[in-house]
Design a protein that fits this description.
CATH topology of the largest domain: Rossmann fold
Largest sheet: 5 strands, parallel
Helix content: 40-55%
Shape: flat
Oligomer: single chain
Strand order of the largest sheet: 2-5-8-1-9
Number of strands: 22
Structural class: alpha/beta
Length: 708
Amino acid sequence: MSFFKDLFGSEGQTKKPPELSSEARIDAEIAALFRMLADTMGTERLVIQAGKMNAMTLMRSESRRERVLALMRILEEDPLLTPPPSEAEIPEILNRMTEQMAGMLARRDLEDRIERKVTEKLEKDHEEYVDDIRRQVISEESPGTESPHDKKKREDLEALERIHLTQSVMELLRPQSFDEIVGQERAVRSLMAKLSSPYPQHLILYGPPGVGKTTAARLVLEAAKKRTISPFAECAPFVETDGTTLRWDPRDMTNPLLGSVHDPIYQGAQKSLADSGVPEPKPGLVTDAHGGILFIDEIGEMDEMLQNKLLKVLEDKRAYFESAYYDPDDKRVPPYIRKLFEEGAPADFVLIGATTRDADHINPALRSRCAEIYFEPLTPAHILTIVENAARRLNVRLADGAAQLISEYTIEGRKAINILADAYSLALNRLSDAEIERIVSRETSDEEKKDTVQEAASCEAVEENAKENVSRETVGDAPAVTGQSNPVVSRETSLQIRVTKDDIYEVAQVSRLYQFGRKKASDIPAVGRVFGLGVSGFLGSLIEIEAVAFPAGEKGKGSVRFNETAGSMAKDSVFNAASVMRQLTGRDIHDYDIHVNVIGGGNIDGPSAGTAILAAIVSAVTGAAIRQDVAVTGEISLQGEMKPVGGVFEKAYGARQAGISTLIIPWENKKDIPEEHLGLTIHRLKKAEEAFAVLFADDTWKKKPEEV
């Protein structure tokens, strides 16, 4: 009982420490722990806590085991903890509880330091608040006056307001109607169908950059608003953000997408709220998009945790807020803040995510709630159309071959317009100020008179066209033009800006562009050279594979070499090809020294180049020439069968870009690509022999070794 008397005895009482036995030392430790608890928690709080934990009787017990049990119940906050520890367990338990107490003391010290800093900050804020009140009172006593400093700031702001730059070229040339989105008819039609119904769907748009994904989504929303069956109101917002800039904040202090809470201390809520200690929720973009569309560009770059949070918002159709500072019983909390905390902010919108990456980079659960639309790569013909349309709107006269040259440097519509805009600037810089004034001037006086006479008729025509467009959309026709195109920079005048091929070349040199669309196809067959097909992201490309073969120094001991950068599955294709070659030609690959190479150092992986590798090796060994206007893709099996591969649609674009006229794909891929897609002759085949009949210029490959 001595520990209890020490703990709750008179303050002036002192005690001379005796010579302690081991049991007495344990008793002293127990008493010391109780004193430390009293110092840390306070005597009154310790008594209350002991009462809650059913430990008061145990604390007063003569039994050392029961006193230790009392300590355990208080420290671990478990009133049901039982039975008392054995005498042998007590030393270890006391060591553990000593460490717990050390941690409590460390936390108390840290909390004290934080509290002192908070107090100092509050005192400082109070002083600033008093100063603000003083300035406010002074301002009220002399209304309408402003300090010289405030006056200077206001004048600077007004000066900035008077500065206006002209519209940028990219803004001017942005498509304003469906007709101006080139090469994406099927994607736009699908987008229209999914958004303009009574039950609009969440969407993910896949495709290369610069093909019109964002613009199409904007235009479809505007068209959907005009349909009576659409749930989108006329004021439905289109909120656009970039997934690369959205990051998950585990502290929830800043979250522009989902919203965050401005706590009164750390983040500075509204001053009137902060002074009352009331946190202020700030709704995010999901609430801004309520009733409309939230468009997230490059959604595949978003943080995975943020994708999970967005998924929860899509399911609840609300965004919820939490804060340790919110007290539902606080009468000072404004009704709107109480409503946000208790009911959340409305967030009923249609999500449209766009990405240039494949589906694996998007949360599967999020992806499963979205319909998927693939935007197609642009062909050189599409780029040509985009450039010519932009030139007309800029009042630019393109020299022969200039538009074609731009199409060789890019497959992105946005990039093509950038190249034209840069060349336009170069051409404009060659002219005098007087010539530029004539070119960029608006209509002549005669044209103005003409427009005045025709104004009424034009307005009526526009209204009638709008009605027809809405009607066509309602019955499910292909998307119609829902608005007028941007006006051109100027009407046709006596002068036009002329952009030459030299301007394009200069832009390409300064911007370090390379010709993307180099033609590789040829009408002349070649031995040991074949065109395979690859795909990266949503861009297909032509892969040049070559092979050479020499009789081995010793029959049956030949060697095979393939690119070191190739993946294991691609290397396996070489050995599959060896087996099939022996079946088809009777030749053993081990009788030859063979070198297979991917021109350009291409890093190929996967088995899709199997048929192309087989053709190259057979050609090198037999001397049979391969057509150079044909490209082939497909895995090759040991039985010589062409197995299906992925990315056939995109690969076709890569083939077309390189001037290929004929495409060979596996039979099982026949549904993946339309008939005569992009004007290509497409062969859907099952066996390597069938592919050889198309690939090889003659039947030389069929000759047996003894026939040669």
